[in-house]
Amino acid sequence: MAGTGTAHMRPDGDRVLTVTDLVVEFPAGGGQKVHAVSGISFDLLDGETLGILGESGCGKTSAGRAVMQLPPPTSGSVAFGGTELTGLSPAALREQRRRLQIILQNPVAALNPRRKVKDLVAEGPSVWGGRPDRARIEEVLRAVGLDPATVWDRRPHELSGGQCQRVCIARALMLDPRVLICDEPVSSLDVSVQAQILNLLEETKSRYGLSMVFIAHDLAVVKNISDRIMVMYLGKVCEVVPSATLAEEARHPYTRLLLESVPEADTDGAAGAARENTEPPSPLNPPSGCRFRTRCPLATDRCAEEEPVLREAAAGHHVACHHADV
Ligand code: SF4
After folding, report:
1. Which one of 2, 63, 98, 242 is most buried, counting C-beta atoms within 10 A?
2. Does ligand 1 have an atom closer than 6 angstroms to the CB of 308?
C-alpha cells in the first residue's frame, strides 16, 4: 500500500472532508523531485477540528494547500462533502472554494495593502455577484472582535498583526464557509495575541457551525484547539490520536520525541524537537521503509525494509510503527 494506510478513516459519521492517498511532489531540478506529501489519508467530521502537527518540512502546509487545490495534488482524492475536487473545472472549483476557506500564516501579506478594511471584507461576496450591505460587513467585523467604526476605512498597515488576522477571518466568514483550513494562523503573531486569535477561532467555529483543519508546528497550540491530532513526519502520517489522550497515550517514537521536547512553558514545541535532535533527511531522497528511522532510537533492520502502516492502538487512536506497543 502506498502511504501510511487508511485504518484511521471513519466509515461512519457526517464527513465533510475525505482525503485519500494524497501525494504532492514538486520538481527540484536535475530530474529530482521533492516528496512533500507521500500518500496520506485523513477525514474530517462535521463540527470537528483536526490538528495537523509536525516540524517544518513535514508536508503539513503542502497537504493543506493540496486540499484547497492550490495547487492540485500530484495524485490522490479530495472529497469535499459529496464533491471530488481534483479534476474540477476552474469555474466549478471556484464555486466549491466559497465553502472551503483558508487562513494563512502571515495575515499582513495576505491582504492587499491598498484596500481599506470595508473593501477587503466585502471582496469575496463582491466577486460572486454583489457587494454585501454595510450591516452585514459590520456584523462580521464585530463577530471577529473588530469595531467597525474604528477599522472601517483603515488599510492593513494601520492595523496590528492580530487585527489583520481578524480581518482575514472576517473575509473568510463572509463567504459562509463549511470548512476553515488554518495554516499556522498564529505563528507570526506575538505570544500575547496568539491566545486571543485561538479563542476567536474556537468561538467562530462554534458560532458559525464550522469544521476546521488546524495546521501548526506548535504542539501546545494544536493540542488545545483540536479534537483529533494527526502527526506528520517527512510527508507521512505517524500517528492519529485524540488530543485528550495525546500526552499520556501517544506511542509513536516521533510523537513521544515532540512531547518530551516541550518544557512546561515552551510555546515552540516541535521546533524545539528539531533543535535538540538531528535535522530531518531531505525530502528529495527520503529514507526507505520508515522515514523516521534515521532519527529513531528504536529503529531495526525491518524499519529500513518495510514501511509501517497505521494500526489501531485504541478507539480513535492509530500508530504507524513496527515496534510501538500497539
Ligand atoms: S517503524 Fe521503526 S524507525 Fe519507524 S518509528 Fe517505528 S521503530 Fe522507529
Report:
1. 63
2. yes
The CA distances from residue 281 to 156, 254, 274, 277, 287, in Å, are 39, 14, 12, 12, 7
Report how far residue 245's alpha carbon sits from residue 230's, in angstroms, rounded to the nearest whole number: 13
Ligand 1 centroid from CA 174, angstroms: 45
CA–CA distances in Å: residue 3 to residues 34, 54, 84, 249 = 16, 17, 20, 23
Q: What is the mean pLDDT of residues 160-178?
A: 94
The closest-lying atom of ligand 1 relative to the alpha carbon of residue 293 is 3
Q: How far apart are CA 205 and CA 48, in angstroms?
A: 9
Give the other-Cβ count within 10 Å of 322's Cβ. Answer: 19
Atom 3 of ligand 1, residue of closest alpha carbon: 293
Q: Which of 252, 254, 238, 243 is nearest to 295 (CA)?
A: 254
Give distance in angstroms: CA of 320 to centre of ligand 1.
8
Residue 267 pLDDT: 43
Q: Which helix (H) or strand (E) holds 212?
A: strand 211-216
Q: What are the chain's domains?
A: 1-89+217-326 (3.40.50.300)
Kindly report, residue by residue over 185-199, the tens digit of the pLDDT. 998 888 889 999 999
